[in-house]
Structure formats: C-alpha cells, structure tokens
Amino acid sequence: MQFDSLNEFLAMGGYGFYVWLSFGSCAAILLALFVSSLRDASKLRNEVRAQMKREERIKKAKQQEQV
Amino acid sequence: MRITNLLEIKSVTCTKQERCLFESLSFSLEAGQIMQIEGPNGAGKTSLLRIISGFARPDEGEIHFEGQPISDNYDEYAAQLLFIGHKTGVNGQLTAYENVCHWLRVHGCQVDERAYDLLSLLGLVGLEDVPVRTLSAGQQRRVALVRLWLNNAKLWILDEPFTALDKKGVRQLQIRFSEHLAQGGAILLTTHQDLTTHFAALKTLVLEYQL
Amino acid sequence: MAQHSYWQLFFSVYSKDVTLAFRQRSEIVNPLLFFLIVITLFPLAIGPEPALLKRMAPGIIWVAALLSTMLGLDKLFRDDYNDGSLEQLIASPYPLSLSVLAKVFAHWTITGLPMVLMAPMFALLMNLESQALGATVLTLLIGTPLLSFIGAIGAALTVGLQKGGILMSLLVLPLYIPVLIFATSAIDTSSMSLAYGGQLAILGAMLAVASVCAPIAISSALKVSVS
Amino acid sequence: MWKWLHPYAKAERAYQLCNTLMPYFAVITVVCLTVGWVWGLAYAPADYQQKDSYRIIFIHVPSAILSMGAYSSMAIAAIIALVWQIRNAELAVISIAPVGAAMTAIALITGAAWGKPMWGAWWVWDARLTSELILLFLYLGVLSLYHAFEDKKSAGRAACILAVVGVINLPIIHFSVEWWNTLHQGATITKFDTSAIDSSMLWPLLINIIAFAGFVGVVTLIRLKNEILQCERHRPWVRELVGRGE
Question: Membrane-crossing residues (chain A) (predicted)?
Fold first, then answer.
C-alpha cells in the first residue's frame, strides 16, 4: 500500500482534487450510462405489455359487437 | 423460352411506424396487363408502389423484373420503368417545355419536337413557355403526364394519375393506357376511378387497413 | 432505349441548376453577401489594428467561406426533394452518382466560384500581404469544391427532415476541419513568402478522394432519405 | 462465405447470442474494474515527476483507446449493415454510439483534469485532445442524425452512412490535427517500441483497459437487446418473451 493513512490516500500527494474529480466523473458517467440502458429496457417491456393489453381490449370489443 | 412474367412481387412485407401495412404479399403482372390497387387511405397503397419502384426497401421479400431482382441492377430496371407519384416531379421555376425536355434527357430519350404538339394535345396550348408554378394543379399534372406519350418504358407505375384531371383528360389517358397495353406494356396504378368499364382484363388487388 | 450518353445527362442536370440559379438571382448573391458581412464583422469585433488583422486574415476568410458554402447547401436537394424530381433522378437509367456529381458541380459554380473571384477584394479588406493573395485564391479554388462535396453528403442525409439545417452543419463541420487547417496554413506560409506547395498538394489529394467517394455516399444517402 | 454468421442475422438468434455473452462480459468487467482501480489508485508506485497526479492515466488512456475502438467497431458494423443489408448490424451501430460518446467524454474530462496539474491549464489545444474533441462531434453527429428521423429503418441506414463517412475522415482529421500541433507527450504504450512506462504501472493500466472494454461490451449488449426488442416488438417471440416476464 503506497499510502500510510486514509487521509494521505485522499490527499493524493496534493493532487487529490484532480484525481478524485476525474475518477468521480468517470464513475458517474459509467453509472449513468448503465442505469439509463437498464431503464430503457424496462420501459420497453412495459410498452409491449401495454400494447398487448390494448389489443386484448380491442378483440374483446369486436367479439361483443358480433355476439 | 419460359415466358417469365414481367413483374413478380414475392412475399413482400412492410411495416411503417410500428404498424404492419401488409404481410408476405405476392402477385405478378404479365406484359399487356393492367392492375389496379384499391384500398382505404392509409392501407399502404403508396408504400407498395414505392417499394415496387425501388424507392423504398421492403422488410422482407423481393421484387423481380423479368426474372431478375431489381436490387441487383437497378439502373437496367429503371430504364424500363416510368414512375409518376403524388409529387409530379415538375419544377415550378422552369417552363413546361423545359421540364419535359429535362425529363427526357435524364431518362436517356431523344428530345423530339413532338413534345410541343403533345403539350397542346393535352390542353396546354399557349402555356408551354410559362413557368409551371403559374399553372393550376391539374395543368401541372398534365405536364407530368406528357411523359406517357414520349417514353417506351415497359412498366408504368402511376400513383392516382387521374387526380385533378377533367373528363377529357381522363379519356385521353385511358386511350393512351390501352395503346400501351396493346404494345405489350404493363400498368400498375392506384385510383379511386372505376376502370372496369374501360378495361375488361383489369386485375385488382385490395389492401385492407390493418391495425 | 436511346443510346446512353452520360454527357447528355450531366450537362442537362448541370444546366438546369445553373439556369434555376440565374432565374433567382438571390441564390448567387446571398452567399456572397453573407461572406462579405462575416468578413467585416471581425475587424469590428477585434479592432482595426492592421498587424492583427493581417495575422487573422487567412483564418477569417476561410471560416467565412466555410459558413457561406453551408448556407448554399441547404437548397441543393431540398427543392428537388419537395417537387419530386429527386425521385425521377433516382428512377433514371443513368447512375445516380453521375447526376449527383453534376448537381455538386453546379452548386460549386453558383456558390464556390464567385467566392474565388471575389477573394482578392476580401483580401484587400483584411489588408493581407500581396504575396499571400495568390495562395488565398489558389486554396479557395481547390478548397471550395471540396467543401461542396463534403457538404453535399450532409445535405443528402438531412434532406428529408424538416429541421435539417442545423443538424446538417453539426454533421458537416467536423469533416471540414482538415480542409480548414491545410488551407489556412498554406496562406500563412505564403504570407511569410515560403513555399506552400505541400499544403496545396494535400488539399488536391483530398479533393481527388472526395470527388470519387463523395458521390457514392451522397447517392446512397439520397436513396435513404427518399425511402 | 461467412456462413456461420448468417443465423445471427435473424433477430431472435441475435437476441439469444447477447444473452449468452452477457455473463462473461459482466464478470470480466466487475473483476477487472475493481482490481484495476484499487491497484492503480492505492498500490501502484507514484511517478517520480508527477507524483500521484499521474494516476489519472489509469482511466484517461483506457477511455481514449476505447473511444477510438468503439468508433472503429461501429464503423465495421455500419459497413456490414450497408453492404450485406443485415438489419442487426444497423442496430449494433446505434447501440455502440452512445457508449463510444461516453468513453470520449470521459477521455476529455480526465485529459483536462490531468492537464491542469501537468500543463497548468484546463484546456490545452494539444493534438490528441483536439482529435478526441472532434471524435466527440462525430459521435454526436451520428446520434443526432439517428434521432432526427421518425422512421427508424431509414434512421439506422442514414446513421450507418454517416458512421462510414466519419471513419474515412478519422485518419485525415487525426493526421491533420497531429500535423497542426504536436504538444502532447509521446505515446506511453505503443505496440511498436518498448513502452515508456515501468511494468509496475503497466499491469494495472492493462487491467483497466480490459475492464473498460468489458464495460463497453456489457452496455452495448444491453442496448442491442433493447434495439432488437424495439424493432421486433410485433413479433410473437417478443410478446411471448415479455409475457414470460424475462
């Protein structure tokens, strides 16, 4: 371990601000991209389910008309 | 030699904005035949015509012209194709005569002087040298329809050719259609006119409006 | 089928666009006026001090040339798309890239060529050295067709869209950067009365590549926009 | 030719392929990312000149490499889509683009953050950073062109054309920017000469590159699955799949 204590690790030899800024922004971008992709996936599935329900209703309405 | 039919549509499917217009549609058209595509608005008539003339690509299926898929050598197919869609393809700033001559050169036909008398035959006497934007919609369509007389393409694909035409124009067009069919050409068109009285061997294809 | 004469098609598409431009004078005058206005903005913005202007002149002239070419690009395919003649061009026995080549050449004659002819006047406005004048005209002569070719790709991609104008510049400007770099550096080296043949050669090479590859990209983009 | 590739042109097979590949990529990413970051931040020795500020290299170089890698793989997918008319390749182009743009953004931010202590300015018009910025413009161009079309099919094809045009211009842009201004330090790892970086720093860097590559793989697979479902939402296999709640 290159650093003796935690706050020395955080200080990063005086460049802590820049190191943690870049690592933080990198983590933020990676996380945002990952989460948004997963959210798109679930949004899409809900849309397909809603579409299936809508078609059910239309079919039922048609049957009532014929009966 | 097996007579391959002029145009074959093989199980073509097209979906537009998540709506399936038609699914695995197949039909063929021989030389000397005229086919009318009917259906309510939004049934996909124009999309079908645009797929057959090669402007749009179907989701599945192929279009064969004289036994050859049109996507292989599109230029050869285009030489035998005459397409007139909703948009007339006539530039408003140019005069009617310039438009016709330009179209002829772009389609590799000789610019012959018949263009002038054909324009007058179609009721555009005296309007040949006036910018087309000053003409009415019907007259602008006639400038586009002059091409039917000046071109020997085998296959005509026309999207509602009779719109904005008066009685005399409709009759002239129907006479030209029968001449073309007699010479072994084929016509594929969409229209709301009833053509059965004029063309006995009329094939029809009906597209329903699918949800 | 009539005999295929490619020259007939090329000349007919070319002369149609040029006659259209001469019928609407604004199509020729607007880009030039825009070029002039952008050039006069800079001295107002950064002060009339000749030494600074002389230093900035190549960059300003070329950025103005870039932007006014962009201005003319929007109309390149828009009218033909709207009135349907683009479909007729696609459904013609001749290859689409040939008619596209004719259209880009016509666009260059309408917007690019006047710029090249007016360049000496603009150089005087920015009191560019006289020996840099030759380089400016030469780089514009080789550069503006290159701008038309690359810009036409952006125009073809966005012709079907209503709000295509801004999007087209977003697509095309990054591709203009190499042209800008070599053209301005050619003028810079010439103002120091050094040889600028190298930069011109690279511009020429880019033009050769673009005149071969761009029509193919443009015609496939047009086919996508029409479908 | 390429007979083994054809079954994956069918959407459902491609979807299953994504599912099978997903766990491998996920494992590689998680493992390498944690090991790489911990090693790079805590255990790698400090640089004698820049001391600890050089640790930014462990994310700047991988993201820069991945931004170029993502663009070239996007261009390859675009060429496949245009030449062999394979619809799934178009969907792949659309799934890679946002990930590549994110990688470029990371490379730019970390480059600027690293430049401040090293060169004293947040933004330096250095050749590498400028090319990276132009690469970001190319990505944004492809994405905005795709979203400008209503009809998704022609949107995909237009985006492929722009991706191919972009990739042809990439070397020209890189060469001209490089020629225009060379301020950036020489390449730290190049395949040709021996790397100018000590092996104790090289290993964490390589692990980080693999981690970032794994991450790009995972997110691209997720987005590709979304695009396939979006495109095939009418097909029975999608409805049955969604019905099963997968």
Answer: 15-35
| D166 lies in some domain | yes
Distance CA(A3)–CA(A22), nearest Å, equals 20
Task: Pick the more confident residue, D46 or D156.
Answer: D156
Tell me which chain C residues have a C-beta less than 8 angstroms from the C-beta of B135. none
Contacts of D215 in chain A (CB under 8 A): 30, 34
Q: Containing domain of residue A61, as a range? A: 6-66
**Four-way CATH pick for B1-80+154-211: 3.40.190.10, 3.40.50.300, 1.10.1740.10, 3.40.1350.10:** 3.40.50.300
Q: Do B18 and D234 touch (CB under 8 A)?
A: yes
**Structure confidence at residue B3 (pLDDT):** 57
Which among C196, C188, C100 is positioned nearest to C148, based on CA atoms? C100
D63, D226, D230, D246: which to substitute to probe chain A, counting the most A Cβ within 10 Å?
Answer: D226
Which residues 183-202 on chain D approach chain C with CB closer than 8 angstroms?
none
| In a domain? residue D132 | yes
Closest CA to B48 of B156, B188, B154, B145: B188
Q: Do D150 and B18 touch (CB under 8 A)?
A: no
Alpha-helical segments (H) within chain B? 45-52, 74-79, 96-106, 114-121, 137-145, 147-150, 167-182
Of residues D137, D145, D172, nearest to C157 (C-beta): D145
CA distance B72 to B75: 9
A1 in any annotated domain: no
Confirm if D205 and D16 have CB atoms less than 8 A apart: no
Longest dimension (CA), chain B: 52
To which H or E segment does residue D158 belong?
helix D152-180
Question: Which comes out higher in pLDDT, residue D102 or B22?
Answer: D102
Count CB neighbours of D9 within 10 A. 15
Distance from CA of D83 to the nearest CA of C (A): 11
Instruction: Give me the percent of chain D exceeding a pLDDT of 90.
Output: 47
Mean pLDDT lowest among B120-124, B153-157, B178-182, D110-114: B120-124
Q: How many domains does chain D have?
A: 1
Partner residue opposite C174 with nearest CB, options D134, D149, D154: D134
Higher pLDDT, C156 or B22: C156
Task: Report whether pLDDT(D148) > 60.
Answer: yes
Q: Which residue among C167, C181, C227 places its CB closest to the CB of D148?
A: C167
Counting other chains too, the contacts that D195-204 makes at CB distance below 8 Å and 24 or more residues apart are: D198/D45, D200/D44, D200/D45, D201/D44, D201/D45, D201/D47, D201/D57, D203/D39, D204/D36, D204/D39, D204/D40, D204/D43, D204/D44, D204/D58
- Structural domain including D107 reads 24-41+55-182+205-243
Supply the pLDDT for residue A63. Answer: 87
Residues ≥6 apart with Cβ < 8 Å to D180: C181, C185, D127, D130
pLDDT digits (tens, 9 = 90+) for A40-57: 999 999 988 988 888 888
What are the sequence ranges of the domains in chain B?
1-80+154-211, 90-152
Give the start-to-end residue ranges of the domains of chain C.
7-226
* Cβ-based contacts of A29 with chain D (< 8 Å): 102, 105-106, 109
Question: Domain total for chain A?
Answer: 1
Question: Environment class of residue A57 by beta-carbon count within 10 Å: exposed (0-12), middle (13-18) or buried (19+)?
Answer: exposed
